[in-house]
Amino acid sequence: MSKSCILDMNQIEKRFGGVNALRGVDLQIYEGEVHGIVGENGAGKSTLMKILGREMKANDGSISFRGELINDLSPWQIQSRGIMTVHQDLNIIGSLNIGQNILLGNPPTKRLGLLNWKAGYPKAKKALELVSSSLSIEHSAENLSAAQCQLVILARALVQKPQVLILDEPTARLGLEETEQLFKLLKILKQKNVTIIYISHRLEEIYRVCDRVTVLRDGLKVLTAGISEIPQEELVRQMIGRKVEQLVPKRKAEKGQTVVEIINLTYGAAVKNVSFTVKAGELVGLVGAVGAGKSEVLQLLFGAEHLDGGEIRVGSDNQFMQKPADALKAGIAYVPENRSDEGLVLDFAVRENLTLVNLSSFSQMGFIQRKKEHEKALELINRLQIKTPDSDTSVKSLSGGNQQKVVLGKWLAGEQKIFLLDEVTAGIDIGAKFEIYEFVGDLTEAGAAVILATSDIQEAMGLCDRLLIMHRGTIVAELIPENTTREEVLMNMMGGGVQHEVQSG
Amino acid sequence: MKSRVGDFLAKFGTVAVLLLFILFMQLVFSDLPLLSWPNLMNIAAQATVLSLVSIGLSIVMMCGEIDLSYVGSLGLLGTVFVLLLDSVGGLIAALAVIAISLIFGILNGLFISKWKYSSFLATLSMMFIMMGLQRGLTNGRAVWIDNQEVLRVASMHILSVPFPAIILILSFLVYFIIIVYSNAGFKLKVIGENIEAAKEVGIKTMRIKWMAFIFASLCFGIAGVIEPLRSSGGVIDSGWALFVPCLAACFLGTTMFEPGRVNPLGTLISALFLSLVINFLTQIGLVYYFINLILGFLLLLAVGLSSIKNRSIKQIKL
To answer: What is the pLDDT of residue A1?
Structure first.
């Protein structure tokens, strides 16, 4: 790899108040390489990329692109040089069609500044075809799934003919097929000599697509190495600064009586005749690719959607969850996939978010008892090991993993007995993941029933008592982690498994 | 599940209700010539100022901000026009008034997009500053136009359409083309829908917002010339009368065509409808403070209706 250096970041420093987010980071990116950046949440990956895209200003240091100093340019000047970032936020405009969303930054224009969409569509179509074979540019962008939004945003970057493409957790929301398509796309881009900076928590991906990898830890660059020179264990050790024995903790929980029984649940085409039961203290994994119907099952259980058919029994009652309030009363807690939109009030303090669900238990005659609320918040912060300067910090300044802990923690303040968790560790680093797994284990030990929707096979096999594999709205297999293999789970997730019944103990 | 009927109702339901309301009024008060051609043209002339201001306000609302400065600027600009009229003539006075309005628009944009003031507070302050300036210029008195030549131009009809209405039609066409067909208008709407997305794709959000405030001030400037021509003078605080109707027009407009979004055609139709209502109420002989009462309720109704589809208006969080 004796290529020329296309991006040279020199001694980048960034401070937020008293916190050093980046401490003198040097990073050289070679032209045409796929450069992985790994590190725990809060290590400074996103901050570094935001400084590169000039969405944020560094306190010190310089960046040059092909020898030109670019750290004082505006964000659009950076983009006009072909440095494009694909963010984790899915900023899609629902009232426009997909093509217009792709051309959002530079709408095609004829004379007098008038729009000429038709002129831009071939370009948009070409970009879209690179990322997806099923989407069409005329289709409305309303009601796209998270995965489809991610693909549209990817196409939006491609249409600008990037020279450096920064991908921030691009696969966090993608299904298996879409991920494969993304990897094919990366190959094509590489052939075109496009430089790619690839941020991911999924180490398998880093090893699959990257040429070199840089590890950040606590705002410092720990190392940059060729991917073949560093084994995975060593990479993990460098990321978290200590050795890890296992990625998923062991848990032990006594199973009790059946607390949730679902019979022939049906919801449009998304969920078809889904039946299963969950016992107290049991952790059931609802495993499937993106769009398999896992999220919908949880939403139906929580009353966020109205079922078209079937029954939900919680305890001994036949419950009709008309609205989330009914589910709350029945002792159900729900942690949605999209934590920042649905699970948190980002501008509120950690304390306020933690006590939001059970505000009435801290209130007397309509007044919040600050001291009681504060104590409870501190207890939860300690129990979940939430890394926050204090309980009054606003949630939006926390890293993704810690935000997720707040979402989980707010349910802990109450008396919920059934937990519905949707992709709780998506986009979260290994350390925080482990802590969340431990916490989920604690829940079952305390007698709670947990349904965990996930597309992460490692997580499902390591954590769950039983796996219900979903494909296109139905449960295609029921597997016990000890008696199955990763390959079997994967096959079933992709719809290729042989249908067979396994009786659970 | 979306139904087509529901979609159709969301888009055109309000328009139908408004039409029915107008017919109902005419049927109840059948002795008044409410829907006669002369009265309709009279309404069109009256509607010009309200519509122009609503257009300006709506373009600012489309990018997620608000501009209340029109309440102050109408009075100030009208007074300046009258004061300049005798010394420099109608055309120059009109251009000067528009130029002054543009300066205020540039200032609004400076505070809001450059210095990150809340648009509500910045334009509210600007409104009071302009009210103060108007009083200072005239010692708190109304000023009247003596120049009959100018007043004659203002009451001219072209093809039996009054002159102010023609200005309105032309202004609306320009505005409509900008919003619906232009690059800048598209970017403006993207900012209103999702400013993070706009920033992410490199749209110059600051510049476009600034342009929106300048465009709004252009509308206010033209309205500021027509207002004194219609009332034959500059009256202290004449903008107050339009405070609620203009806001109501923008909100009521969100219940039509593009439900949940401030949009050009909805704003215009609502402004015309509100002018009609004001005209009807006056003709029926309601005392003026009753008109305010009814307008207040209409604003509540408009905001309520506009929130039905999406539970909120996309662009504006007030």
So the answer is: 45
Residues A72 and A204 in one domain: yes
A113 three-class SS: helix
Alpha helices by DSSP H, A159-293: 176-191, 203-209, 232-240
Whether A95 sits inside 8 A of B258 (CB atoms) is yes
In a domain, B15, yes or no: no
Q: Taken in order A290, A294, A296, A299, is the CA torsion positive or negative?
A: negative
The number of helix segments (H) and strand segments (E) in chain B equals 13, 4
Q: A79 at the B interface (CB within 8 A)?
A: yes
Considering the domain architecture, whether residues A28 and A100 belong to the same structural domain is answered as yes
Q: CA–CA separation, A168 vs A157, rounded Å?
A: 12
Neighbours of A155 (CB within 10 A): 27
| Residue A119 touches partner B, C-beta closer than 8 Å | no
**A108 and A218 in a common domain:** yes
What total number of domains does chain B contain? 1
Residue A186 lies in a domain: yes
Q: Is residue A287 part of a domain?
A: yes
Which helix (H) or strand (E) is B77 found in, with range? helix B70-88
> Which of A240, A265, A284 is the C-terminal boundary of a domain?
A240
Residue to test with chain B: of A91, A92, A140, A158, most B Cβ within 10 A: A91
B positions 149-208 inside 8 Å of A (CB): 177, 181-184, 186-187, 190, 193-194, 196-204
- How far does B208 lie from chain A, in Å, by closest CA? 13
Residues B127 and B104: their CA atoms lie apart, in Å, by 10
Of A85, A91, A107, the CB nearest to B186: A107
Contact of B254 with B260, CB cutoff 8 Å: yes
Same domain for A202 and A304, yes or no, is: no
Work out the angle at residue A117's Cα, subtended by the Cα atoms of residues A111 and A118, and round it to the nearest 5 degrees. 100
Instruction: List the CATH number of the domain containing B272.
Output: 1.10.3470
Q: How far apart are CA B293 and CA B270, in angstroms?
A: 18
Given A197, A212, A240, which residue is the final one in a domain?
A240
Range of the domain at A185: 5-240
pLDDT class of A171 with cuts at 50, 70, 90:
confident
Whether residue A286 sits in one domain with residue A234: no
Distance CA A74, CA B50 (A): 40
In A305-430, which ranges are E strands? 309-314, 317-319, 332-335, 363-364, 367-368, 418-422
Kindly report the CATH number assigned to the domain that includes residue A473: 3.40.50.300
Q: Are residues A232 and A288 in the same domain?
A: no
- For residues A288 and A300, what is the distance between their CA atoms, to the nearest angstrom? 17
Task: Report ipTM for this prediction.
Answer: 0.78
CA torsion sign for B49, B50, B53, B58 is negative
- Of A62-66, A262-266, A274-278, B309-313, the poorest mean pLDDT is in B309-313
How many domains, chain A?
2
Does residue A79 contact residue A86 with C-beta atoms inside 8 Å? no
A271 within a domain of the structure (yes/no)? yes
Nearest CB neighbour to B183, from listed A80, A95, A107 = A107
Residue B120 CB coordination number (10 Å):
14
Average pLDDT over residues A405-428: 81
Residues in chain B: 318
User: Computed over its alpha carbons, how large is the radius of gyration of chain B?
Assistant: 19
In-domain check, residue A35: yes
Q: For A333-360, what is each residue's pLDDT tens digit?
A: 888 877 666 677 777 888 888 877 777 7
User: Both A167 and A143 in a single domain?
Assistant: yes
CA distance to partner chain A, nearest, from residue B201 (Å): 5
Q: In terms of residue numbers, what domain contains B291?
A: 32-306
Task: Give CA–CA dist B172/A460, Å, rounded.
Answer: 59
CB A498: neighbour CB atoms within 10 A? 9
